[in-house]
Design a protein that fits this description.
Elements: H1 2-19, H2 26-46, H3 51-68
Amino acid sequence: YGIFMEFLFGVCFVLGGLAVPFNPSPYYGVVGLVLVSVVGCEWLMSLSMSFVPLVLFLVYLGRMLVVFV
């Protein structure tokens, strides 16, 4: 079960990363960035890390807030 979830997180991470440059609308690119951020944090948490994903997600949210405000 654990190996399958890590593989699933990896596939979602790669697909979300590919969704960013290949979407014609920037709004869909942002959805890809959100997917990559959430899946990356979940992937790190599945590896028994808790502080690094929290910092990664907070930095990502702060960056997106600055970009869209």
